[in-house]
UniProtKB/TrEMBL annotation:
Compartmental location: Cell inner membrane; Cell membrane
Organism: Martelella lutilitoris
Pfam families for the chain: BPD_transp_1
Keywords: Cell inner membrane, Cell membrane, Membrane, Transmembrane, Transmembrane helix, Transport
Record protein name field: Spermidine/putrescine transport system permease protein PotC
Gene Ontology biological process: transmembrane transport
Source organism, top-level taxon: Bacteria
Signal peptide limits: none
Function: Required for the activity of the bacterial periplasmic transport system of putrescine and spermidine.
Membrane topology classification: Multi-pass membrane protein
Transmembrane stretches, start-end: 15-36, 68-91, 111-129, 135-154, 183-204, 239-260
Domain ABC transmembrane type-1: 66-255
Gene Ontology CC annotations of this record: plasma membrane
Length: 266
């Protein structure tokens, strides 16, 4: 690395980096630390205890919210990834496609609009259609705003893939479906997996849309946590937050390992 490109040669860069990471992760560390507080009053430390984790795992309302969030996230991830994959294939593998830019803008429209606008729009739409089932509303709404998050890495992967692979498969008498299954799909697998992970995380993390569509017992985990916050912060809430952080770290680690493995294969 050249002298001008090495960040370590810039004065104060190490201190700035250290302050940045402390500022970023110190609140998370505080939440994790106080989740082991024996006292119910969060700010008063009286001893180490794991009873709040046991209390959180025995909380039926919490487990129900986790089940709703996971169900909606899995449905939204599958549906949004399939829609994003189809859109990416059409937009990147159809030469001379009319209104390609407009179509791409429509797919990415939920990213351009404030989430509250999308939430209000789907709420009015479901009211006009007479859809009252909370799970159905959540699944459709989450699929809508998760689609562009799945679309971006899939499209990027397809754009970086040469069309020559498909043409070579066709020259070897492979059907379009066989060429996609044997050639295209393995090559875009890292982008596909990244899109699925993004869609899943965005669905699990959503609050605004889920809060507006919350009905019929379909309470997601972020909405449930918000209800606990209004009652006051407790070590049980910290324990729940710590468990969410742990699950997020596991998912991120799996995604990084899978991407690294796919890159080594290439």
């Amino acid at each position: 690395m050249s002298e001008t490109a090495n960040i370590r040669h810039y004065p104060g860069s190490r201190l700035f980096t250290a302050v940045f990471f402390i500022w970023l992760y110190l609140p998370i560390a505080v939440v994790i630390w106080y989740s082991f507080n024996e006292n119910r009053i969060v700010s008063v430390w009286t001893g180490f205890s794991t009873k709040w984790y046991a209390s959180a795992l025995e909380n039926r309302a919490l487990l129900s919210a986790v089940e709703v969030s996971l169900t909606v996230a899995v449905i939204a991830t599958i549906c949004s990834t399939l829609i994003a994959l189809a859109a990416a294939l059409v937009l990147t593998r159809t030469p001379g496609l009319k209104f390609a830019r407009l179509s791409e803008t429509i797919v990415n429209l939920p990213l351009l609009l404030p989430e509250i606008v999308v939430a209000v729009a789907v709420l009015i739409l479901f009211s006009q259609l007479g859809i009252s089932d909370g799970m159905v509303k959540l699944a459709i709404a989450h699929t809508t705003f998760c689609t562009p998050f799945a679309f971006l890495p899939i499209r990027a992967r397809l754009q970086g893939m040469s069309p020559d692979y498909d043409e070579a498969a066709r020259d070897l008498y492979a059907t379009p479906m066989m060429a996609f299954r044997r050639v295209t799909l393995p090559l875009i697998a890292p982008g596909l997996f990244a899109g699925m992970m993004l869609a899943f995380v965005m669905s699990m993390d959503d609050f605004i849309t889920s809060n507006m569509l919350n009905s019929g017992g379909a309470t997601t985990l972020p909405v449930y946590i918000f209800g606990l916050v209004k009652q006051g912060t407790t070590p049980e809430l910290n324990a729940i937050s710590t468990l969410i952080i742990l699950v997020s770290l596991v998912l991120a680690t799996v995604a990084l390992l899978a991407s690294a493995r796919a890159m080594r294969r290439e």
